[in-house]
Write a structure and sequence with these properties.
The complex is a heterodimer of chains A (554) and B (422). Chain A contains 33 helices and no strands. Chain A has 554 residues and is mainly alpha-helical. The radius of gyration of chain A is 35 Å and the shape is elongated. Chain B contains seven helices and 23 strands. The longest helix of chain B is centred in the N-terminal third of the chain and has 19 residues. Classes of the chains: A mainly alpha (554), B alpha+beta (422).
Chain lengths: 554, 422
């Protein structure tokens, strides 16, 4: 919408025939609203039209006009006074929707003319006999509170004082006991935010008891919120703990998953001194978790798995026989697959080992790099956790290294590096494969890992020499990380088989010392050289396979 | 909770509609959202939460829309997600479908709805039955403007008083979806039934309904353990059902909302024989061709029939010149899905059908090898439930004493039904 369109709308609205046609007004408002979304939109030109429409006989037009009014700030005063008067008149309307709308608008416009009426509007509103209006009035407390606390707000301080002096906080505490469940929860919400600096709403035994008694009336959102709030409360004696748990028990399998999780957290907090109960409580929520995991709602599954991570041992105990619900599906996004794999691997026991292994191996070949890396890491974890089976598991790594997907190979190498050399020996004869990988891989991480692994294997094929010659030839194009590893690998190999690698070492050292780009490499090469020169016997023990350098992978 | 603002964006990241609830963030910060999502997508590191400075974007995707909530505070993410999903559900109930077009067409109405469902970042009334009573699609004169129904304050918050129908009817659908995952070597990895009882209620006044099922726990407690019954797990009810009564004596009693709603859902983990079983032999001859032999078997009783069976067999993206041979149904190559669709209009129980497909492959191999997606199956079996659940009675009691007709229908369909291929 450009300037001309704006003028068109304004001039057409000044025609009473158009103005009295609600359909036409909707259309115009729609355009103005779309315009208002734009960043640099100057809304003040619309002010006269909007103020006129606030008194329109069509409810939708009225609502939209009020909504738009909140987007205009710093405009002409007399029009604003007119708008305020319209709202004050609306406060006396018989329709609760209009009364609520008036309160909401009054408290949301950041303008002096409105601010002086806010508190009185709210006070009238919370005493209204329609719960719809009471709700609007309660929530409006928050906007008034935030506006008056804003920095640089000249009239803010006065308003803030007025707000503190109005006794609204006390009134809100009283209204927790309002007959309308939504009003009751809204009061808690508002109080908790108003009193944030003092630690939120104050919960005593009486209030908690009251909330628990009423909780069944609340909306799911309300229950979830109250459950979150009660987590703060620390009961004094064991009887009270059991009372609370009895009241909340039905909400452990409420149809809203958030309610269940929040309730579960209350229980976990309550039984912190009674660890023997924890298994029962987690088992109680088992079916709920299972239904979340088969719900197909990816966001919910991800956040729930995230929650599970907070209580790893309890959760894996609870879900150990249901590992299959956590298997990945092809279409799931990678972030969920990663969460699932990381959790499934904690569930492994003797009975489900085969299933889970199959699942992990399948995902090792996933097209997504992250998923594949995660699955291979899980495989690595199994190797460490089950030393008796590690020999067999390492065979799987051999297969992975021969995959035709380069990211799979690269990920496998990265995981292999983190395993002990004892394990790596079980992979089988991969020396030649490693040489090819080191030569052909384009990924720096993969190449470095392959070069590192070569030293932990007893390979003396001519392929190795050929590979090093290739590296020497393209030395200038190498990444400095690869250069570093190359140097270390050659030094190590030289110490085990000096005669064989003498020429290679001299070439590599020569290249490194004369490296014009990377000072680090030069220093390192000089250092290795001086060590080798100073005490050949000692350097052999340092660099040899079982020497100190083998335990770290830098 | 406390979301600062809610946005609805199109696929390009253009704001279709937005509502600022707390006024504590700069609304234009949303411009940063889409580029960040794109970057993450490029790097293959998708995440449902995107953080920019001190603003977090929590989003879901629906059709060609992004629904984004932004928050500055430490919001409860799970709650925000369920709120966004609820929002989708509300829009669907209002507009039947939710896409760019329906947002544009109902711009002002959506603003109105956004105003009602959340206030200052906290969810308020999200029950669409209630919303529909005072937020309607056509404009209103003030005098007759709808008022928020008493129900908002009522003890029975999901039903308004004073409803009247000329003909009092209730429709009850028992729908069971079968989720199945079979590994490449034919092991059933997962098999479960997700059931739902959906109702359409057209009843006057404040009726009291009681539903009787062949529930195992109920049967055993009343000494009818021998009759055929079902052991329901993980039963979830609509909020109208009196949970305490169900806990006590397994009676499902409730005052229903008006119109369409889901009364309950349940899950069964019992191992049932997969209703439709598919065996596949795939011969890949690299650089020249690939051949499929697919055998589909219906493993349910002969007197039932599966309708609209669709077997989706994935093929390599670079396959060409399809050839099919089958005795039953029709085959179609769907290149946009990289799959062959084998559709069988009517598939009686205890039958076995065969299909062969042949594709050419280019001599130059495709660079990035695709994973091996599973075969998936869609189907629908009317008048049949896998679990054997039955509605024994549906009693309708209203104080005016009218007679009402209950109609019951059973259907079994596929859920997430997949068989991995080797």
């Amino acid at each position: 919408m450009d300037e001309r369109a704006v003028e068109n709308i304004l001039s057409s609205l000044s025609d009473t025939r158009n103005f009295n046609d609600p359909k036409y007004c909707h259309l115009c408002l729609k355009k103005i609203m779309q315009y208002s979304v734009k960043k640099s939109a100057d809304m003040s030109v619309f002010l006269p039209a909007i103020v006129n429409m606030m008194a329109h006989s069509d409810l939708l037009v009225k609502k939209a006009a009020c909504q738009l009014l909140t987007k205009i700030s710093g405009a002409k005063c007399e029009l604003m006074v007119l708008a305020v008067n319209t709202l004050l008149k609306d406060m006396k309307e018989s329709n609760p929707v209009i009364r609520a709308l008036a309160i909401r608008t009054m408290c949301n416009v950041k303008h002096e003319a409105f601010q002086e009426h806010c508190i009185s509007c709210i006070t009238t509103g919370i005493a209204d006999n329609s719960s719809y209006v009471r709700r609007a009035a309660i929530m409006a407390c928050l906007s008034v509170f935030h506006i008056s606390n804003e920095q640089g707000n000249v009239w803010g301080e006065v308003e803030n004082e007025k707000f503190q002096g109005s006794g609204l906080v006390h009134k809100l505490y009283e209204m927790i006991r309002d007959s309308d469940p939504v009003v009751s929860v809204d009061c808690l919400l508002v109080l908790n935010e108003l009193l944030r600096d003092e630690g939120g709403v104050v919960l005593n035994k009486k209030l908690v008891g009251y909330l628990l008694k009423r909780i069944s009336e609340y909306t799911p959102w309300g229950i979830a919120y109250v459950a979150k709030l009660i987590q703060k409360y620390k009961p004094k004696c064991e009887d009270e703990i059991f009372d609370i748990m009895n009241c909340l028990d039905p909400y452990l399998d409420h149809s809203n998953p958030v309610v269940c999780i929040n309730t579960l957290e209350i229980f976990i907090g309550l039984i912190s001194d009674m660890p023997h109960l924890s298994e029962d409580i987690f088992m109680r929520t088992q079916s709920k978790f299972l239904s979340i995991f088969s719900s197909g709602n990816v966001e919910l599954m991800t956040t729930t798995l995230n929650f599970c991570r907070k209580y790893p041992s309890d959760m894996s105990k609870m879900l150990i026989n249901h590992h299959k619900t956590l298997f990945c599906k092809v279409k799931e996004p990678s972030y969920l697959k990663v969460e699932k794999l990381n959790f499934v691997v904690t569930l492994v026991n003797v009975d489900n080992f085969k299933d889970i292994l199959e699942e992990i191996v399948t995902n090792c070949y996933d097209n997504d790099t992250d998923v594949s890396l995660c699955a291979i890491q899980c495989l690595g974890r199994l190797v460490r956790d089950f030393p008796d089976l590690s020999d067999k598991l390492m065979k799987a790594f051999n297969k992975l290294l021969h995959s035709d997907k380069s990211h799979v190979v690269c990920n496998t190498l990265q995981v292999l590096v983190s395993l002990s050399s004892q394990n790596i020996k079980c992979v089988g004869d991969i020396g030649i494969r490693l040489c090819t990988i080191a030569r052909d891989q384009t990924d720096t991480e993969g190449r470095t890992a392959a070069l590192y692994l070569i030293t932990s294997l007893d390979t003396d094929s001519s392929e190795l020499l050929y590979m090093f010659e290739c590296f020497i030839e393209e030395y200038d194009d190498l990444d400095s990380k690869v250069k570093c590893q190359l140097l270390l690998t050659v030094v190590k190999l030289f110490c085990t088989q000096p005669a064989r690698y003498q020429y290679i070492l001299s070439d590599v050292l020569d290249l490194c010392i004369n490296d014009g780009v990377d000072r680090d490499i030069v220093e390192q090469a000089k250092f290795y050289y001086s060590v080798l020169e100073a005490n050949p016997g000692l350097s052999q023990t340092i660099f040899q396979k079982d020497g100190i350098f083998n335990s770290d992978n830098s | 909770m406390s979301a600062s603002a809610v946005y609805i964006l199109d696929m390009k990241g253009k704001v279709l509609i937005c509502r600022n609830y707390r006024g504590d963030i700069d609304m234009s910060v949303i411009d940063k959202f889409m580029p960040m999502v794109m970057d993450m997508e490029d790097e293959g590191q998708m995440s449902p939460i995107v953080q920019h400075g001190d603003v977090a974007f929590i989003y879901i995707k629906y059709n060609n829309l992004y629904l984004v909530a932004s928050s500055k505070k430490n919001a409860n993410v799970a709650l925000v997600f369920s709120f966004l999903h609820k929002l989708v559900q509300i829009f669907l109930e209002y507009f039947k479908e939710l896409e760019e077009e329906s947002i544009r067409d109902n711009f002002v109405l959506i603003y109105e709805l956004l105003d009602e469902v959340m206030d200052f970042g906290f969810p308020q009334t999200t029950d669409s039955k209630i919303l529909q009573e005072y937020i309607t699609q056509d404009g209103h004169k003030l005098e007759i403007a709808p008022r928020p129904p008493m129900a908002v304050t009522n003890a029975v918050s999901w039903r308004s008083e004073g409803l009247k129908y000329r003909k009092n009817e209730v429709f009850l659908d028992v729908i069971e979806s079968v989720n199945l995952l079979v590994s490449a070597n034919g092991n059933v990895l997962r098999s479960e039934i997700v059931g739902a009882i959906k109702m359409r209620v057209y009843l006057s006044g404040m009726p009291e309904l009681r539903l009787g099922l062949n529930d195992k726990v109920l049967f055993e407690s009343t000494g009818r353990g021998k009759s055929k019954s079902v052991d329901l797990e993980d039963v979830k009810f609509h909020q109208c059902v009196r949970l305490s009564r169900f806990e006590n004596d397994r009676t499902i009693s409730f005052v229903p909302p008006d119109g369409e709603f889901e009364l309950m859902s349940y899950r069964l983990n019992t191992h049932v024989k997969p209703l439709i079983w598919v065996e596949s032999v795939i011969e890949r001859h690299a650089h020249s061709r690939v051949e499929y032999m697919i055998k589909a078997k219906s493993q349910f009783k002969r007197r039932s029939t599966a309708n609209n069976v669709e077997i989706v067999i994935p093929v390599p993206p670079d396959a060409d010149s399809p050839k099919f041979k089958t005795t039953v149904g029709s085959c179609k190559y769907a290149p946009e899905m990289n799959a062959v669709l084998w559709t069988i209009k009517s598939f009686p129980g205890g039958k076995e059908y065969l299909m062969r497909a042949h594709f050419g492959l280019p001599s130059v191999e495709n660079e990035d090898q695709e994973g091996r997606p599973p075969i998936s199956i869609k189907f629908e079996i009317p008048y049949f439930t896998v679990s054997g659940i039955q509605v024994r009675y549906l009693k309708i009691i209203e104080k005016s004493g009218y007679q009402a007709l209950p109609w019951v229908r059973y259907i079994t369909q596929n859920g997430d039904y997949q068989l991995r291929t080797s």
